[in-house]
Specification:
Length: 447
């Protein structure tokens, strides 16, 4: 079992922009300094890490893989007893797949997810496809990444393939790991009308913001969104596929929130960032009201700023929002500052290769701790023992990694993996232990 999840992540975006691969792991020096990055995680007191192998370097073709880097890094995570929340697809696909307009992607990705879970049977937590709505928006509608399309049809096509890939991956991972839990990391958005003439446009966007999670959780959309999907390339059979795959009981709804997540909509269709108006607690209430699921704050950050206190103040604000969400009875299980180190070129959404270092990390790119890292470490120390004892605490049935397990097992690597997998197969009638459902001793109304 585990109490509240304090997490961070290694930024591993890898979209293509105009045929150029943007690899944040490479830009941030992770391939060279991955051991030090994991040490930084432990120095903060964090036991959960959003992390995944670079898909374009690992997945070489159908059934063809280069697992060397994944084998090294995941062995070290297990040794350090850091539980990864495995991020299998983060804004890009290998060159041989092309982009998210490729209808073969979901079934191919299903096999990749199953093969990963079979190779690393000790891993329990997954985000199969990261920020499906944002990826479809940036790739299919805004023309920024990957296919660089600028149409509603491009958006819907990318979205249905991304969500179908996520659903198929969840099903595939549950085969070798029946107690796997899936923490969706999705951007929580809101669109504010700047004038009465913009109300209808804003309302349309406020319905579309839910589409990725509606499809992922098998939730029926309203008539406006059904017509929107059908008019832009989704078929009735595709829609019913999502309705018939209900995997909510294996999921935690991860919501990301940045100062850029709220938007101002104008009557001519323009959209601008509005800055924080509602804030994380109000947006989370809206998403929870819709899906009635356990929640996790899966991403936030802010540039450190000239005084060094800007990021610290944002962290405290987001943490106060998390406590507010928890105190009103919404089952929230975790919080994430993203990422462990600074990032590069996110000020242009990775579209421009300038090498601009964005001071967003708990550590800088020399792996020196920032003020926000010190602040996060203190929050973890102060609250880790308090939150599990508070009312409305949610209990996740987590099977934390134990590096000594593989040493005890002996035998060949394949034999050790097979034995580990067998230990986690749910037996008929057994509803206890780590393979049981997500449980809560307290939130009113459940989820």
């Amino acid at each position: 079992m585990s109490g509240f999840i304090f997490a961070t992540g290694v930024e591993n975006s890898y979209p293509t922009v105009g045929g150029r691969r943007v690899d944040e792991m490479e830009k941030c020096g992770h391939y060279l300094h991955w051991k030090r990055d994991f040490e930084c995680v432990t120095e903060i007191g964090i036991k959960f890490l959003r992390y995944g192998p670079p898909i374009h370097r690992t997945w070489l073709g159908p059934g063809r893989y280069d697992w060397d880097f994944a084998d090294e890094t995941f062995a070290e995570l297990q040794r350090l007893r850091i539980m990864p929340i495995v991020d299998l697809c983060h804004f890009g696909v290998p060159d041989w797949i092309g982009n998210f307009q490729n209808g073969d992607f979901p079934a191919l990705f299903e096999t990749y997810a199953r093969d990963f879970a079979t190779r690393f049977p000790w891993v329990q937590l997954y985000t199969p496809v990261n920020e499906m709505f944002i990826c479809a928006q940036f790739s299919g509608r805004w023309g920024w990444w990957n296919e660089q399309m600028t149409t509603d049809r491009g958006f819907v096509t990318a979205l249905k393939h991304l969500v179908r890939a996520n659903v198929l991956a969840m099903r595939a991972i549950l085969e070798p790991r029946p107690d796997a839990l899936f923490i969706q990391s999705e951007s929580s958005e809101y669109f504010h009308a700047s004038s009465p003439a913009a109300i209808q446009i804003a309302e349309m966007y406020n319905q579309q913001r839910f589409l990725s999670l509606d499809l992922n959780y098998g939730q029926r959309v309203n008539s406006d969104m059904y017509e929107f999907l059908m008019d832009n390339g989704m078929t009735r059979d595709e829609y019913h596929f999502f309705l018939e795959n209900r995997l909510k009981r294996h999921c935690v709804m991860g919501t990301d929130y940045y100062v850029t997540n709220e938007h101002r909509v104008f009557a001519d269709g323009r959209i601008e960032a509005s800055g924080e108006i509602f804030g994380y607690d109000e947006l989370t209430r809206q998403y929870h009201e819709r899906y009635q699921m356990p929640v996790m704050h899966t991403e936030t950050n802010l540039v450190e700023g000239p005084t060094g206190e800007e990021a610290v103040n944002w962290l405290w604000k987001e943490w106060a929002n998390v406590l507010r969400v928890r105190n009103v009875g919404i089952p929230i299980v975790g919080f994430t500052w993203y990422s462990i180190t600074d990032q590069v070129d996110w000020d242009s959404a990775l579209r421009e290769d300038r090498g601009n270092v964005n001071a967003l990390g708990l550590f800088d790119l020399d792996r020196n701790i920032r003020k926000v890292g010190e602040c996060y470490r203190q929050i973890i120390q102060d609250w880790s023992s308090v939150l599990p004892a508070m009312s409305h605490a949610l209990v996740l049935p987590l099977d934390m990694p134990d590096e000594s397990e593989s040493e005890r097992d002996g035998g060949t690597k394949d034999e050790r993996l097979r034995r580990h997998a067998l230990r986690h197969v749910r037996r008929p009638g057994n509803r206890s232990g780590p393979s049981g459902p997500i449980r809560s001793p307290g939130p009113p109304g459940g989820w």
